[in-house]
Amino acid sequence: MALDKNIIINVAKNIAPNVDVIEHHGDLTLVVGRDVVTDVLAELKENPATDFNQCVDITAIDWARKTDRFEVVYILYSIPNKTHVRVKTAVREDKPHLPTVTDLWEGANWYEREAYDMYGIIFDGHPDLRRFYMPEDFMDADGEPLYPLRKDFPLAGIPGSLPLPQK
Amino acid sequence: MGLNEQLQRDGFVTTTVESVITWAQKNSLWPMPMGISCCGIEMMAFGGPRSDSARFGSERFSFSPRQADLMIVAGTVTYKMAWVVKKLWDQMPEPKWCIAMGVCTSTGGMFRSYPVVQGIDQFLPVDAYVSGCPPRPEALMKSLLYIQEKVAASKPQLINLGKDAGDVRRSDLIVTP
């Protein structure tokens, strides 16, 4: 039996009173501020009423023109309650920092590395924040690191940014 | 009775060393399987009982590059993977051949995107390209037969090693132009 959505919303509201709730085709999304996001996630995990013990994915969205350019998305699952929830938070372009959640879910380690590699979001306190897919020295001619899933990155890549072996 | 007929009657065959070596190379191409993605499955079917590459002397898939002379690159090659493919290619002894199997390997295919090498001929000397996504085993078989033709047409050069022929490698003996 899936968890009642009001229970989830109330647990989140205890920590962040001004949480935005979006429901779309039965999928629950909680939009919270970046200063309280880890507290909300911790409460959703630790509270026995919700018990979201699995972190399914952490990823990001690049909204390009918004003031808060990036949105980080946490997808959680409660194995005992058979319930999904999505938690979103907005991050600014000039300060793309968020606290890590690796202390809550060990599995978040690689998801955060992936979001860092693809969008350049820095998870403070992560034990080993390196690039995940792309080579460590993936940068443009000026030495600026490149993040390929950002909207300003060309789909076909930047010539010369990735080296090839000699023939 | 001429000498030739005399020899044949006694169970001898007269030939040249070059043509024996070429014949042996042609009919015992040992593939190095670089099954990187879905083309790898068709490459396995090519080696399996239905297509049976053993008919052409290629049943021995060598998982060590050092005992292989034909590299079948089967799958999408990313910029990161290119270094691995090149490293394995460099370990294969001369003479060696390379098949680019499938459109991803040949041209980047549908992956016109930042991490994918747009054709492995940017860093490997490719002898045969196989189209298809993935190609059927028959298509790969055709490319193998093409490589065999190419081997048959090439002429190995024999090097006179003289007295210092103690530590001789196969790659020292035969050099294909």
Walk me through this protein's architecture.
The complex is a heterodimer of chains A (167) and B (177). With 167 residues, chain A is α/β, with parallel strands linked by helices. Chain A is built from three helices and seven strands; from the N terminus they run αββαββββαβ. In chain A, α1 crosses α2. In chain A, 27% of the residues are buried. With 177 residues, chain B is an alpha/beta fold. In chain B, α2 packs antiparallel against α6 and α3 packs across α6. The mean pLDDT of chain B is 85. In chain B, strands 1-2-3-4 form a four-stranded parallel beta sheet. A two-stranded antiparallel sheet of chain B has the order 5-6. Chain B has a single domain, classed as Rossmann fold. Helix content of chain B is 37%, strand content 12%. In chain B, α4 links the parallel β2 and β3. Classes of the chains: A alpha/beta (167), B alpha/beta (177). Chains A and B meet through loops of A and α4 of B.
Q: What is the total number of structural domains of chain B?
A: 1
Strand content of chain B: 5-15%
Number of helices of chain B: 7
- Largest sheet features of chain B: 4 strands, parallel
Give the SSE map.
The complex is a heterodimer of chains A (167) and B (177).
Chain A: H1 5-15, E1 20-24, E2 27-31, H2 37-46, E3 54-62, E4 70-78, E5 83-91, E6 97-99, H3 108-119, E7 122-124
Parallel strand pairs in A: 2-5, 6-7
Antiparallel strand pairs in A: 1-2, 3-4, 4-5
Helix pairs in contact in A: 1-2
Chain B: H1 3-9, H2 17-26, E1 31-35, H3 39-47, E2 70-74, H4 79-91, E3 97-101, H5 103-107, E4 128-130, H6 137-153, E5 157-158, H7 170-173, E6 174-175
Parallel strand pairs in B: 1-2, 2-3, 3-4
Antiparallel strand pairs in B: 5-6
Helix pairs in contact in B: 2-6, 3-6
